[in-house]
Amino acid sequence: MLIWSISVAIMALVVAVAHSLLSERVILVPLFQEDSRGMMRTSAMRNITRAVFHMPSLAWAALGIGVLFNRLQQGPDLIAYVAMFVFFTSAAGNLLALRRPHPGGVILLLATAATAADIFVN
After folding, report:
1. Less Cβ around it within 10 Å: N or C end of the chain?
2. What contacts 32, CB < 8 A, 6 or more positions away?
């Protein structure tokens, strides 16, 4: 059944795109507009900060697509287990850091469950 792996890919892509777009608009742009006399005044530090913010998005998208392609090729479940670990730890990290549920974290928990269902039914 491809429905679970398709849903994993969709959820991972939605979270990845939302995370990148919203972090740019809500966090990075205001941060970089602040008058900085410290480390954030250098373009290198700003570029590194931007890259670090977008790395989780790339990982979520790649893992979601990886789960789908792996299922299409009837490969072993290793990528799915890695995806479950990354999705779950990302969601748990959000919850611990924010001390409240976060929409992206909830979607990542759903992606974790969908990945588990994909492994179970296939």
Report:
1. N
2. 40, 46
pTM above 0.90, yes or no: yes
| Alpha-carbon span 72 to 50, nearest angstrom | 33
Write out pLDDT tens, residues 31-61.
Answer: 888 877 778 888 899 899 999 999 999 999 9
- CA triple 7-8-9, angle to 5 deg: 90
Count the domains in the chain: 1
Nearest to 84 by CA among 12, 17, 13, 24: 12
Cβ atoms of 94 and 23 closer than 8 Å:
no
Q: What is the tens place of the pLDDT at every residue in 62-90?
A: 999 999 999 999 999 999 999 999 999 99
Within a domain: 97: yes
9 pLDDT band (50/70/90 cuts)? very high
